[in-house]
Amino acid sequence: MKVKEYLHQAYRLDKRIQSHIEEMECLKEMATSVSSPRWDEKVQTSRNSEGNFVRCLERIMDLERRINAEIDNLVALKEQIRCVINEVADTDERMVLRYRYVHNLTWEQIGDELNADRTTVYRWHNAAINHVTLPEDPVKV
């Protein structure tokens, strides 16, 4: 695994968690909505007697378990990334990595934080990537 791929894992995992949370909110909305009554006279012998909300609640509980596991994984990964970043000797390079991969700031935001233009931020970032040493057993995402 390359350095950028390793450092960028936290961003992707965070986005995946956000997507699961949005899906869970939709399911909660579906579970609390009332469906309209059916006026047709269909008779089914093997009709499922559970309401739609029961399936939504089961899905919500599964998603909550998955989200909690992914959050635990994200916390461990970010802690490991912070340790890796703290090993970089140059302060500017370390700050660029921290802002980019821990705080998920854009290049422009990093430049504003560090009072530097974009090319300087890119230069610090490229130098920092060359100074990062990957951990022996990285957290699996």
From TrEMBL:
SUPFAM superfamilies: Sigma3 and sigma4 domains of RNA polymerase sigma factors. Keywords: Coiled coil. The keyword Coiled coil applies. Residues 60-94 form a coiled coil. Pfam families: DUF1492. It comes from the Bacteria. Transmembrane segments: none annotated. InterPro entries: DUF1492, RNA_pol_sigma_r3/r4-like. Signal peptide: none annotated. This is DUF1492 domain-containing protein. It comes from Anaerotalea alkaliphila. The lineage of its organism: Bacteria, Bacillati, Bacillota, Clostridia, Eubacteriales.
